[in-house]
Amino acid sequence: MALFTDGFPASMDDLTAQDSQLLTVASVEGIDVTRKLALAQEQLGMELHEALNRLVSAGPFVQMGARQKLDRVVVTSPLRLWHACRTLELVYADAYNSQLNDRYAAKRDQFQKMAAAAYEKLIGEGIGISLTPIPKATSLILTPAGGRLPDGVYYATASWVNEAGQEGSCAEMASIATASSTYSAQLGTVPQGAVGWNLFAGVDPSAMTLQNAAPIAPGQAWVQPNPLSTTGRRPGDGQEPSYLQPAPRMIQRG
After folding, report:
1. Over the stretch 119-154, which tens digit does the pLDDT of each residue have?
2. Would you tell me the crossing angle of helices 102-125 and 77-99 to the nearest 10 degrees?
3. Which of 43, 86, 103, 199 has the greatest number of C-beta atoms within 10 Å?
4. Which one has a higher pLDDT value, 1 or 224?
5. Is 116 found in the same domain as 15?
6. How far apart are CA 242 and CA 129, in angstroms?
7. Per-residue model confidence (pLDDT) at position 66
8. Do 147 and 127 belong to one domain?
9. Residue span of the structural domain in which 158 resides
10. Do 100 and 193 have their domain in common?
11. Confidence of residue 9 (pLDDT cuts 50, 70, 90)
12. Where are the alpha helices (DSSP H) in 75-233?
C-alpha cells in the first residue's frame, strides 16, 4: 500500500470504475480531472490531519507537524474509495455549476453520499499508520554500462527499503535499449529511513522480477549482470500499516 503523500490515493482507473461516463463528461464540460484529484487529496489531507489532532491518546503525533502526520498515513481501501468519491463529487459539482443540469446534480449528491460512507468505514476500521514510513521511490535512472545482455529493451522499477525490511512504493517504470552492453541503475535522493533499495527488471513490463539478492546500499548503482534473473518476486504494492488508528468522527463537509 502507498503512503498518503506518495501521490493520489485513487487513480483514474479507480474513478472510471465508479463512473464509466467520467471521461466523456470531463471532455464535454472542459473539466480537468487531475486537478480535481489534487483538490480532493488536499481536502482529505486537512480532514485526516484534524482527525489525528483530535485523538485522545495522541502518542507519537503530539509533537508532529501536519506533513509529518500525513507522511505516516497508509492508503487503505476505504481511504482510496473516499478519495475517489470525493473527486467525483467535485467533478459533478463543477459540471452542475456550469450547466445547472439536474443529472449532474444527482451524480454530485450520489458521490457525496458515497464519500461520506467511505469516510465512515475508514473511521470505523481505523486510519492506517506506519511507524517507519518509507516513501515512494522516484527518479530511477538507467544508463548503458560495460557488460553484455542480449540486445533488446529492458524495463525496470525500484523501491526503497527501511531498517525493518519493509519496502515503499515502486518508482515509475523506466526502460532502456541495450546494444552490446548492459545497463546501470541508480535511484535519486535517499529519503529519511531508507537503508537500501531493490531493483526489479525484465524484458516485459508486466513481468519484472527482483534482481538483487540483498538490498543495494543507498547511493550505490546496480550494474545488471547477465543473465537477467526471472525467478525473483514481483514488485510489491508498498507498505502495510503498522496498525489501524481509531479516530473520532468529524462532521463531514457538504
Report:
1. 999 999 999 999 999 999 998 999 999 999 999 999
2. 160
3. 86
4. 224
5. yes
6. 6
7. 47
8. no
9. 141-223
10. no
11. very high
12. 77-99, 102-125
